[in-house]
Design brief:
This protein has 209 residues and is of the alpha/beta class. 35% of the residues lie in helices and 23% in strands. The strands form three sheets. A six-stranded mixed sheet has the order 7-8-9-3-10-11, with helices on both faces. A three-stranded antiparallel sheet has the order 2-1-4, with helices on one face. The radius of gyration is 17 Å and the shape is globular. Bound molecules: adenosine-5'-diphosphate (ADP) and magnesium ion (MG).
Length: 209
């Protein structure tokens, strides 16, 4: 992103930020609450339009490309899962939207469950019967199923208790290695950032400091 600014009325959420993220890296943005992290990543994902500046993906200007037409995916917290559906139906959602045949979808979902270390027996299980950590893995699998180039994570582990969080931090790092995709990760914990990242940016008052 080049000279990107985002203003909400009188609030300057992101203040003239220029940033290059490398293909395949685990890039983490750390900063206190209100420093503009979510706004920055939402612009990268296409969920928010910059007030000024431009966003490029490789050589292409994508500033005005909507989120659903970018080869990127925001991983929301497990809360964003369809609770009344099975694990498999959740993971297959994007493929179903694209009209992929059921058998093919299932094979693909099972492959991805393997990548995120979800046992195949979970395929037919309702999401309501999954633990917090399992739901997190379903959310990850669902994002991976659409095969994005870049995954964005906005504090995905913040609501999870300490012990499980420590396990999932290591799993995130592993997952990054196994998929080879670009991860852009937000946290307010420098410690968490240090466990996982190739590179860390510190954000304060809308600026990368
Ligand atoms: P962080 O994710 O680091 O906590 P945010 O990007 O959510 O920070 O917010 C940065 C600033 O922008 C805050 O002052 C916040 O109140 C403001 N802000 C974020 N989104 C909106 C919005 N949709 N409307 C108005 N102000 C917003
Ligand atoms: Mg935030």
């Amino acid at each position: 992103m080049q000279s990107v600014t985002k203003r909400f009325d009188d609030v300057l959420a992101v203040d003239n930020v220029s940033l290059d993220i490398e293909d395949g890296e685990f890039f983490t943005i750390v900063g206190p609450s209100g420093s503009g992290k979510s706004t920055l990543v939402r612009m990268l994902a296409g969920l928010e339009r910059p007030s000024a500046g431009s966003i490029k993906l490789r050589a292409e200007d994508i500033t005005d490309v909507p989120a659903n037409q970018r080869p990127t995916c925001m991983v929301f917290q497990s809360l964003a899962l369809f609770d009344h559906r099975s694990v498999g139906q959740n993971i297959e959602f994007s493929q179903k939207m694209k009209g992929v045949a059921p058998q093919q979808r299932r094979a693909h979902a099972l492959e991805i469950m393997d990548i995120v270390r979800l046992p195949q027996a979970f395929y037919s299980r309702p999401v309501t019967q999954c633990s917090g950590g399992e739901k997190q893995r379903v959310a990850l699998a669902r994002a991976l199923a659409s095969d994005p180039d870049i995954l964005f994570f906005d504090e995905p582990l913040s609501a999870i208790d300490f012990r499980l969080r420590k396990i999932l931090e290591v799993e995130m790092k592993d997952l990054h290695r196994r998929t080879g995709k670009t991860f852009v990760y937000i946290t307010h914990s420098l410690e968490e950032a240090m466990v996982m990242s190739d590179r860390i940016a510190i954000m304060r008052d809308g600026k990368i400091v």
